[in-house]
Here is the input.
Amino acid sequence: MQDLRSKAGKIEFTRARARSADVLVIGAVLSDWDVHHPETRLFRYEHDGKPGEQWYFDDFDFHLQDITLFRNPDVDPKTDYLTYLSSEGDVYHAWWKGNFREKIVGAGTWVDDAEGRGRMSAISQIGDKLYACGNGGQIYVRAGSHWHLLTKSILFDPEAHARLGKTAPPTTDPGFLQWLMDSRRQEPRNLSLHDITGQREDAIYVCGVEGTKPVLCFWDGGALHELEVPLEEAALTGIYVEHAESVWVCGREGVLLHGSHARGFTPVDLRQPHNLFHMITPYRGKLVLPSSTCPGGLYELDTGTSELRRFAPALPKLRGDYIFHAESVGDILWVVGQKDIFRFDGNAWERIEHPDL
Here is the structure.
C-alpha cells in the first residue's frame, strides 16, 4: 500500500463522521487515484489534543463508502463505536476491545461473491440493528453477526437483464426499434439507493433514484412501500427524520421534500435550482445543508418559513473545490470538503489544518 504521507498535498477527503464535539473521523484517498480505488486512509482528529498529538490514522484495503456509529447490543450496549462500510460490502467494526470485519455476501461489483447488483452506498443504525443500502435496490439488515436482504421487492435481477439482452436483433434489423421499445418495458428495475435512516425498525426511510426518477420508500416492519414523489426528475441523496410526521429529504438540482409516509411529501420551493445537496443536519433550530455544485456552499433552512439562505457567518474561503459533509454535535458544527475541514462553535469558524495538505 502506498503511504499517503509520501504525497503530501495530493490527498483529498471523501467521507467524514463526527465522533463527538471534539473528535472527527475522515476518509481520504490520493487525488490521482481512481475514485473507486480500493484503499483508504482513515484519519482521526482530536480537537482537544496537545499540539503534535491531534492526528492519528489507520489504513484500510477497501474503498470507504460510509461511516456510522453503532451501539452494538451484543458487545457493549452502553457505548457506541465507529463502523465503516465499503462499496463492496465490507463492514468494519472499530470496537475498542477488538476490531472485527464482516462481509455482506452478494453485495459489491468486483468481489468474488458479488451477485451483479452493484455497489453499496450507506449504512445506519436503526433501533438495535445496522441497515445498509446500495445500487440494484439492495437493502440489507444485520441480524446477529450475519447480513441478509431486508426485502427483494425492488431488487435488481441481473439474470433477467442478461436474458433480455440476448434477444436483441441486429441494429440493421427492421424490427430493432420495436424490440428496443418493448425491451425498455420489460427491463428489470434497477434502483440506486443513496441513504437509509429511521427512528424505529418499523419506520425506515430509503431514498435514491431509478434512471432519472426519484425514489423514496418506507419500510413498516413487514413490507416496503414506494411513496409518491411529486417530481418528474430528481436524485434523492439524504434523509433527516425530525419526528414521525416531519421528514426531510434532499437531493440534486436543489431538491428538498418535506412530509411523512402517512401524509405524503411535497417539495419545498428553495429557489436554488442547481445545488447538489448531500445531507441534512439539524443545528440550533434550523437545518443545515452542504452543497457541492452550482453554486455550492453551506446553506441553512428556517423550517418555519422555508427560507433558504447562505449559512451565516459564511464559511472561510475553500482550498478545495467543494464541501460534502456537515454534522452537528451539540453547539458544534463540523464541515468537511475535498481539501477543507472547519469547526464552528456557534460564534466563529475555525479552519482545521491537516498535516498532509
About this structure: The two ends are 20 Å apart (CA to CA). The first helix runs from residue 158 to 166. Confidence is low (pLDDT under 50) at residues 1-8. The helical segments are 158-166, 176-186.
